């Protein structure tokens, strides 16, 4: 078969999807805000019991049907009911996330270039520079968003094997090397032990219900769940490959990278005496100031760090467009080129709306009910669409798919008890946990 992943290609591509801004930018700042160690433990439990359960579910549906999201739900269901095609709504989530993800990757790309010239020397200058970029400097943002979108489109045009698998085979090991180098440098700093105890010494006093839900949400986001990406990638995974083992590997790689990124970033921050709870500006404001204090070495570290973020982000971005491509190619018999032009234009244009909505000049007209378009895209995807898709996946697998078929797929590769645990989790624990998260995000509880 042509356009298929090899086993290692799948693991790298799925890990490439999972490892993204969520690991290197978001995980450290959320951990910082919730005080470290105890949050990390909750997060690890959420990955192991909830994230991995849904991941296995998506992988199973995809690998079993070898088809796009919509068709795969119909074919995997007990009744083969056409109505399941509506589960295909989740591919729109991925495309919507990609719209603003591309804009954020654009900011990072601009940081790669500014790191060559000069880094801001204090938090005020750094904060102003960042604010100017996102509120005033429209042409720069547009340029970098276009570069990122163009790269994503160029890669996916080449297909699963030649485009997606290849780029992951190159970028993922390089990402590993850069992070490995940064980790070694972090270990050499005096502050490393402080970073370790911050991340692994549990202070349970800060773990309230918000922290629990943040950990759960993060576990979902970082594993790229609830948008059909893992399902779509798994549809290109040959049927005989052990999907359980591959999924566990992806979860391990993803978690390891989040922890390593956390250790690196907190060592850097503590070394410079900067606060750990800086929020979303941590990477864009606090870190550049830390790097600027280290002279030329700081510049090299800054450039490597932002390039690592770009690599991690690009491999996630290509995985966000693929579900829509596969859908249009299979269900509407489009060529890959046509589908790419269609989906590429959609996310590129929505990205422009997102970036304009933060600007001083267009912000007001693109703000609805107190949130600008960028925040709306973020909110509807992560708080509404992803959790609802995850609930649909759980209910589908737990109640509308033949149990014997599921059991057979699992026991082909693992002992029976693994299936039993998974089946219990997907029927009861996970849907309840996600429903609570969902209601909380909507402000209903
Ligand atoms: N997992 C990615 C990250 O950690 C982000 C992400 C969320 C994603 N949903 C996705 C990536 C869907 C690809 C597809 O940054």
Give an account of the 3D structure.
With 445 residues, the protein is mainly α. It has one domain (7-441): Up-down Bundle (Amino acid/polyamine transporter I), CATH 1.20.1740. It has 18 helices and 2 strands. The chain has helices at 7-18, 21-33, 37-65, 69-76, 90-117, 123-135, 138-157, 160-188, 192-200, 209-222, 229-234, 243-271, 286-292, 295-331, 336-356, 373-399, 403-411, 416-441, and strands spanning 367-368, 371-372. Strands 1-2 form a two-stranded antiparallel sheet. Helix 17 crosses helix 18. The N and C termini lie far apart (49 Å). The mean pLDDT is 93. Bound molecules: tryptophan. Residues 17-18, 20-23, 94, 97, 221-222, 224, 227, 229, 316, 319-320 line the site of tryptophan. The site of tryptophan has 16 residues, from helix 1, helix 2, helix 5, helix 10 and helix 14.
Number of strands: 2
As a percent range, the share of helical residues equals: over 70%
What best-fitting shape do the alpha-carbon axes yield? globular
Bound molecules: tryptophan
Number of helices: 18
Averaging pLDDT over every residue, what do you get?
Answer: 93
Major beta sheet, specifics?
Answer: 2 strands, antiparallel
């Amino acid at each position: 078969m042509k356009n298929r992943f090899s086993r290692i290609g799948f693991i790298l591509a799925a890990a490439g999807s999972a490892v993204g801004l969520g690991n290197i930018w978001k995980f450290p700042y959320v951990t910082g805000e919730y005080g470290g160690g105890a949050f990390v433990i909750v997060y690890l439990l959420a990955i192991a019991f909830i994230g991995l359960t849904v991941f296995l579910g998506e992988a199973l549906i995809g690998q079993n049907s070898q088809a796009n999201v919509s068709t795969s739900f119909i074919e995997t269901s007990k009744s083969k009911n056409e109505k399941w095609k509506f589960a295909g709504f989740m591919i729109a989530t991925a495309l919507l996330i990609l719209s603003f993800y591309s804009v954020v990757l654009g900011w990072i790309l601009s940081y790669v270039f500014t790191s060559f010239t000069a880094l801001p020397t204090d938090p005020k200058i750094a904060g102003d520079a960042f604010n100017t970029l996102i509120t005033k400097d429209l042409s720069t943002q547009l340029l970098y968003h276009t570069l990122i979108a163009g790269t994503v489109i160029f890669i996916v045009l080449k297909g699963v094997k030649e485009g997606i698998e290849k780029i992951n085979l190159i970028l993922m090991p390089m990402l590993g090397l850069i992070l490995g180098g940064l980790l070694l440098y972090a270990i050499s700093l005096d502050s490393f032990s402080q970073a370790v105890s911050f991340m692994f010494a549990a202070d349970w006093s800060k773990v309230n219900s918000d922290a629990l839900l943040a950990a759960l949400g993060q576990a979902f986001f970082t594993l790229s769940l609830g948008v059909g990406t893992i399902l779509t990638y798994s549809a290109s995974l040959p049927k005989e490959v052990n999907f359980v083992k591959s999924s566990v590997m992806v979860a391990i790689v993803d978690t390891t990278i989040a922890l390593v990124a956390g250790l690196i970033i907190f060592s850097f921050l503590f070394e410079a005496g900067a606060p750990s709870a800086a929020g979303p500006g941590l990477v864009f404001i606090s870190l550049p100031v830390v790097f600027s204090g280290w002279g030329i070495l700081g510049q090299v570290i800054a450039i490597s760090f932002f390039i690592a973020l770009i690599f991690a982000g690009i491999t996630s971005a290509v995985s966000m467009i693929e579900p829509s491509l596969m859908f249009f190619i299979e269900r509407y018999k489009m060529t890959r080129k046509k589908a790419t032009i269609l989906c590429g234009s959609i996310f590129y244009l929505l990205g422009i709306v997102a970036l304009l909505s933060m600007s001083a000049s267009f912000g007001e007209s693109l703000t609805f009910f107190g949130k600008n378009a960028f925040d709306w895209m973020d909110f509807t995807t992560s708080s509404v669409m992803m959790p609802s898709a995850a609930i649909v996946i759980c209910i589908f697998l737990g109640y509308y798919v033949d149990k014997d078929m599921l059991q057979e797929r699992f026991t082909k590769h693992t002992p029976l008890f693994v299936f039993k645990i998974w089946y219990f989790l997907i029927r009861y624990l996970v849907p309840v946990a996600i429903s609570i998260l969902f209601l909380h995000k909507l402000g209903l509880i």
